[in-house]
User: Fold these one by one.
Assistant:
Number 1:
Amino acid sequence: MQPLANITPLKPAGAIEVRNVGQIFKTTSQDVVALQDVSLDVKPGRFVVLVGPSGCGKSTLLMMMAGLRQQTSGTITISGAPILEPDPNRVGVVFQEASLFPWLTAEENVEFPLALRRVSKDERRAKAQDALKLVGLEGFGKRHPHELSGGMKQRVSIARGLVQDPPVLLMDEPFAALDEQTRMTMGDELLRIWAATGKTVVFVTHSLTEAVYLADEVIVMSPRPGRIVDHLQVSLPRPRTYEMLSGDAFGRMRDRIWQHIRKSA
Amino acid sequence: MQGLGVKAARIAIVVALFAIWEILSRTGIVNPRLLPSASDTLSMLGDLLQRASVRKDLVVTATEVLTAFALAVPFGVLIGFLIAENRYFADVAKPLLFFAFSIPKSIFLPMFILVFGVGFAQKVGFGFFSTIFIVIMSTTTAVESVKVEHLTIARSYGATQMQTAFRVYLPSMLPVLLEALRISMIFNLTGVILAEMYASRDGIGHQIATWGENFQMKQLLAGVVMIAVIAITFNELVRWVETRCSHWRT
Amino acid sequence: MTATTLRRLIVIGLIVLWEMLPRMGLIPELFLPSLSSTLIAGWSDAAEYGHALAVTLYEVAISMAFACGGGILLGAVVGSLPRPRILIMPMVSSLYAVPLVILYPVFTVWLGIGSESKIAFASIYGFLPTMLATAAGIQTIDPQLLLAARSMGATLSQRLVRVIIPAAIPTVLSGLRVGGALVIVGVVVSEMLISSAGIGYLISRYRTILDSPHVFAGVLLVLAMAIAFNAGIKWIERKAAIWQTGSRAGQRAADELTAGAIQPAT
């Protein structure tokens, strides 16, 4: 077993701590500062959205939280232990479309992370069924990704991210490739799944509306160098409804984010 | 800088291959009668290029290649255009063409001898036959690579047919056409040389086959190097032009 | 009339013409023997053709193992390592422009006119496209898939076995199709040029005695072989059709192959 995970953590499961993180890309001509001195605390069970223009480093930050990329300086801890490499027991990741393996069925895709750990066939199947049921895809397990709609594929991705029951779910523009209607529905679905599981979610998006609609907290980032310029608490009650989109509170928050983004563009 | 480094490394690889060849033969690890050294082969190549008979063979082959090419390209382009522009014709012809394209052409070589006898017509005919299908297919691809939006824009600004042809079709198709030219030439050259090796009285392919039959390894290898250099030079030339106008592709 | 009907009619028409034109004397039997006389010629000497077919198939099988095995192995290595790829791939595709058939006389001097020289030639003939296709297939695997596998904690070997290999299968199959077809051509052409056995040899021998029906019977046999091979690979491709939607880039490489962009002269 993993001793680190078994030590009583200083922080409860699902807490994310980002401390003075910096990232510098070296290119042949010059060094590009992708992230500069980023610090951030995410409490367990919160839904946090990272938003900002292209190149602000929001996806880079997410990849570092997932252990898929190492920061140049600073530390990131999840559930109290530093994250140095991908650890699916602590963190599940959901990518943009196309990250399902096209040669596997939906069920096998969800089982994939378990198969990597040589979990027994029966246990795998049972866990995959639970995860698919959670995302509302009961009965679609035998289909291949090309037989599923864009929204369904993303549901499978979410099920795959959740199948090992990690306390943290990281999502990198998961709905970017979907059409507007599907996007709204998937947003509601995600909130339902989040409420049912109590995971900590960090969600990267370009869409201001999506950000405010989903989040407990919105982190606004700006590029060159990538840093946090604002941190909003979204006070809208839950469950969120479509009517809130046209309300004043919603509009004010979206405007505030837009002002930041306009300045940095 | 990096590009230069890669080029230098490639040259180093080629030089190293020639050096290995030289050493294998010089030290007698490989029987020098079976593998004459690289230096001997290259000096033989220089020698061959001085010979009137070899030059004549090269001219014969070049004439055949160019004739077959000059016949196959306009003919193939015409058919390719018809297929690309006419939906019904395309539906009828495409599967047949794909089939014709996928079957090996070389085995039909004996037929060309039965029909044309041994000579110029047979070799040109076979070269034409080896090339025509790829020209048709490439032309179809080239025409289909023209973006509909570009045509719509040209029409919406009132472009005449001539203007559309020269300002939209040609520039969009140029990169694909160059690629087609390169590949058709490879097909064509292979077809003609095979025809010469199979049954012929002249041409460089015939000469190579004869050297092989007479175990004249030095001449044979020199001939192989010669053809390889000619083919690669042509190929690189077209590729160079291709990259020069590659900004059209996107 | 639908396109398919017309196409079928054309095919039937061609077959009928093939039978009728030589029979009516519009085309000399020497140029084009009628379908029936070709089939009769092949049937009456079935034993001879059968024996030749066995020789050819033996050579094809061994060459296929060399060409495809070596091509896939080397293509996978070159395709997955960026440095060798940048260095070597352009060289390999230049080599592609060389009409490889000129190497056959070299092999006959080195290995004699038996099966060995055919196998050597056909192996090299089929090797390049298989290698190029495999390298292209490996290199165009969607990086998101690898990233996703890594996020789930897949080790290097798990990524190779569970992601890279399955994702590369469609391009490898198209490479096999082209490479395998070239192996068949390579064997038959080399038999036609210089040899003492095999279908290519039969074709050439009957050609020198101007026995057109027997030449055609041999040509038909080779055609059948090539078509059967092609159909076989296509069947496997269809079986693995789910892969086709795999990497979009891999699909593009497969399209290029079928479109002839990386198909050499046959």
Number 2:
Amino acid sequence: MSKNSKSKNNSEGKRDFLIISTYTMAGIGAAAVAWPLIDQMNPAADTLALASTEVDLSSLEEGQAITVTWRGKPVFVRHRTPEEIKLAKEVSLDDMRHPETDEERAPNEKFIVLVGVCTHLGCVPLGQKSGDVKGEYGGWFCPCHGSHYDHSGRIRKGPAPTNLAIPSYEFLSDNLIKIG
Amino acid sequence: MNNSSSNFLLVNILKLFLFLIIFFISKTSIAASEKIVYPQLDWSFSGILGTFDRASQQRGLQVYKEVCSGCHGMRLLAYRNLKALGYNEDEIKAFAAENSVNTINDDGEVVERPARPSDRFVSPYPNDKAARAANGGAYPPDLSLIVKARPDGANYLHALLTGYVDAPAEKKVPDGMYYNKYYSGKLIGMPQPLYDDGVEYADGTKATPDQMAKDVTAFLAWASEPEMEERKQLGITVILFLLVLTTLSYFAMKQIWAPVKNR
Amino acid sequence: MSKSKFKNPVVKWIDHRLPIFSFMDHELNHYPTPKNLNYFWNFGSLAGFALVTMIISGIVLSMNYTAHVDYAFDSVERIMRDVNHGWLIRYIHMNGASFFFIVVYIHIFRGLYYGSYKAPRELLWILGVLILLLMMATAFMGYVLPWGQMSFWGATVITNLFSAIPFVGESIVTWLWGGFSVDNSTLNRFFSLHFVLPFVIVGVVILHLVALHRFGSNNPIGIDVRGTQDTLPFHPYYTIKDLFGLGIFLTFFSSAVFFFPNFMGHPDNYIEANPMVTPAHIVPEWYFLPFYAILRAIPDKLGGVLFMFGAIAVLFILPWLDRSPIRSSQFRPIFKFFFWVLLLDCILLGYLGAMPAEGIYVILSRIATAYYFFHFLVLFPLLPYIEKTKPLPISIAEPILSGGATASAFAVREKK
């Protein structure tokens, strides 16, 4: 036992630059290996390349809404009535949690396009079907924890921190949009 | 002392026996092998530092598209992958859009739409059975992995594509079969695919069968191992790191062990 | 043992209640290790490293793999082409299996050469053979998962081995398959077992280490450790030596992964499984080749299977086949000679396993198989009666030859 501890003390005295750098380098190598193992859980190339979705809105009448799938998530498209547009545009932004004008959110005022995922904890809000509860502001209502969204998809009441997200999309023609 | 010398004699006699056995085995096993030998070409992508030749690959893609793709699919490759050959997004979009894929419209009907970069290469036949039926029972294999799926794949492919010669008089070639000196059994269901000027290269390279075979092989080698260049590059970094680490640890070991060894 | 071994108060608090730090300090830091170990003793820790590498890369692969006959092949190719660093992880796992076997085979032959299986380390050896068996089962089932031609036909051939069992063979094979051929049910259960068996291996490895630490490592001289003058603490002497060995190992391993990833594989496994067409020349993975050669050497179905499993079964009873009290071949000239013959015999069997079963190869396979069993079942028990051994040194620290010391040197001693 005494010899063991003596040799150990010797070696501790010798823990100089060479030995420390060896162990450090081994540590760096081990850390570098961790990256591929973590990164493999990020979206793969085929997932990232997933097709964009084209939506034909010609049969969507005023006041109606459709839900399409994009990247595995629901996207809401609502053809708003003039009255709804007016409400969305005239409301004061002052008491909003996440103030954004309707012009920013709907470049083409007839159609509002939203990612249909509540910004609170990811439920899909109600309000797409005619019989759905639409909440106190007439837009969408999340049944999970009671978030109320207006005609522009802005959060007005409830726990959600931000407005419903707007996906990247463009109008290919008057009635054809491409999401993604 | 007597003991160890008897051991010595015994061990040496046994060693002699062993040597004779090994000699006998090595003689017989060499004689027993007989193989088709493919010409060994000097590929740009072989070797530790080898990389793909973009121009050759692009020509190879053209050969695949104009000659092979009538019968052979490449279902594991996506149009977006062509970016690695040096094409830009618009070129890839246009290339993909020449093909069409089935999709289901909102009324539940199967309709065709132009292929997109995210789609996989469209196969010429809807399924294996259709492929067989259209080719007299011979299945034209998918080419996505062909270079990795054959021993000495690149040389084999080049040899096969240029291996069509007149059958020797004694060999009977049945209808629908073709004589190829590099195919096992020498009779293949695929007619000779490559002829002089079978395609017209945009870069002015003379389209001889040998050139086309080399180009399409370069393209297919990439399709089999699209990760190859990245793999080799990372490999060199890793090996250099390990050599430094191993050298360091060797001297660290010597240092730690010095008091023990010198005692 | 002083109570205040640890300075860190948190460590101290935990260790008082859960002596995990004392345990690690005792088993990995102070653990007395013979001072004369050569580089062949690196392969135990390398095998442990390989096991951990296989488990980690395997878990990561399983996140991207689909165990269904229609999707398995394509999901592996998706890993190779689309998943971030997927090709790297898959090539590590694929080549890792081969390197795991290389390391373990060297580890086994080291044990054979230096008599590491002898008393009091019989159970240590038996647990090791059990690990080998589990590794083989795991490797076999893992090879089925990519669902290539070799996967499918390997699975068909190996599961059919069980049909050799009289009376119940066919029922057992149907049970293994969960159907009437290797199919989706087979793939699913193989995936499940391939995932779980490595953790069983970890369990047996822990037992292997417990058994090892009971009497400590054997050593090149093969005589017992007599006291602290013969040993060194594991850390830093053997941690740094293992790190150096690991560096060498990783350099070879990385060369394979990055530059020759398919060298040890078979091209046919890049063709999707086709139950209607058997490849012209099917061979198992290289690490099964010696056993495959034994299987084919016997002209009888049941006999072949029995001999193949017998080749591993003899390893289980090895400690009782070799009764010589001297461990290391250094002091057994005839044993040493035949050790090399056995090694060559196994390499020859491996070569023959890869060759077609015809002509000279069949005859050679039979000779090599006969020698394998002769070596273990006849030579080992007889040698102690014929062989004149060399005198053993008195101790590891003072390797002075003395003929008179032989008798006492191999008496089993309790370490202090």
